[in-house]
Amino acid sequence: MAIPVLISDGERTVSIDHLINVLEVIAHEHSDIHAGNEYRAHITENVTANLNANLTWLTPDSDLQMHTLVSVTTQNSAHAYFYELIEIPDTACAITVTPRNANRNRADNSSVQEMWAGATVNSDGSIVLGDVVLGSAFRKADGVGGALSLRAEFVLKRNTWYSLVIDEESEGDQKMSMLLDWYEHAPETK
Q1: How far apart are CA 118 and CA 124, in angstroms?
Q2: pTM
Q3: DSSP 8-class letter at 27
Q4: Which of 50, 105, 152, 169 could form a disulfide with 77, with the two C-beta atoms 3.0–4.6 Å apart?
Q5: DSSP string covering 73-141
Q6: Per-residue pLDDT tens for 20-39?
Q7: Burial 56-83 (b: 16+ CB within 10 A, else e)
Q8: What is the pLDDT of residue 119?
């Protein structure tokens, strides 16, 4: 029986599987799921014509960075915006959203300070990703074109309010979904 081979630089360890002699490598994001550092938050709203839905949150006030994948899906025409807010949103009528740990054997203990669905955003702030057009109204006559979903990745500032907003544009009610998928990690220092 072969002895497992471990290679380490003091911070990272790489191993070779001793049964099949294969280098074992796991993606950083996947290792964070196993470590219990990856979280998800999701809302689906039935939005009335010409109104909007939003997911608003305050990033960790620590050295942890929020490495975030933002996803939006709509049934019909919509515009999506991602804002870095300059004012604290009004959460009086909003619904609290609880981030869930992707490793269900770990606690739901994200460092995100607050997360809300339907907060009143008093000022749009800085546009991080602006006016992404989604949906069928922008398709060609033959039905081709017009994405119904969006995915974008960001490393967010600490202790900062963000809001993901979808404006309904189809003049009819439609379901809209927003998903945040993130892991929290200390920035590498090299």
Answers
A1: 14
A2: 0.76
A3: -
A4: 169
A5: EESS-EEEEEEE-SSPPB-TT-EE---EESSTTS-------EEEES-B-S---EEEEEEEEESGGGS-T
A6: 777 666 555 556 556 668 89
A7: bbbbbeeebbbbbebbbbbbbbbbbbbb
A8: 92
For residue 14, the cross-strand partners are 7
Q: Provide the b/e sequence for 104-138 (b: ≥16 CB within 10 Å).
A: eeeeeebbbebbbbbbebeeebeebeeeeebbeee
Distance, CA of 171 to CA of 24 (rounded, Å): 52
Neighbours of 163 (CB within 10 A): 20
Domains of the chain: 1-27 (no CATH), 36-185 (2.60.120)
Residue 32: both structure tokens together: 């964070």
Distance CA 17, CA 13 (A): 13
